[in-house]
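User: Is it possible to get a 3D structure for a protein together with its bound compound? The compound here is calcium ion. I've pasted both below.
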Amino acid sequence: MWIGVCLAEDSLVIDDFENPIFGGPEGTIDFGSGNGSEVKVIATEEIKYSGKQAIKVDFKAKEGGYMWVARGFDLDASNSQWLVNPQDINWPDYYAISFYMYGTDSKADVVLDIKDKGSEMWRFLFKDDFSGWKRIICPFDKFFSRTDWQPDSSDRNGILDFPLKSYQFEILPSAEGTLYFDKVELVKK
Ligand SMILES: [Ca+2]
Ligand SMILES: [Ca+2]
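Assistant: Yes, that's possible. Here is the predicted structure of the complex:
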């Protein structure tokens, strides 16, 4: 039977963590920490949302410390690119970036930062206040330019300039535990 309905794709998958996951200069994921905080990232097949695997992030976020888990372009880990080149994305079609997080209801403050074309860092704040997988949708107009830190090369112009270059997850102090992330998408208007 012919069904005359064609559902338009409402999301573009930009990352699914299906490749080997490792850090370092040749890494496929850019992660690190300082001032007493710790973070470790591995791939896991046991808890995943889509495909064969997700990333498992073990962390200790200490007061005064910092940590990050990043994927994208122009990062220190040279093989951490998304599935899609940012230059090939028609950014005006999308209003949000989304991802899946496996929460533990720890009440920890978690952030998604995005780095814009001018290397300005923009932040979206949320809480680990649920258990299991949940899609977190982060509209671009809900991000704010970070005032606590910016890269030296940042244009700091207060404008979210596209194309974006990278995104990163961070867990804010004080918190300790394990979170899983999977399937990062851009969401159509
Ligand atoms: Ca996956
Ligand atoms: Ca900017």
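Residues 116, 118, 120, 155, 157, 159, 161 surround calcium ion (ligand 2) (CB under 6 Å). The mean pLDDT is 95.
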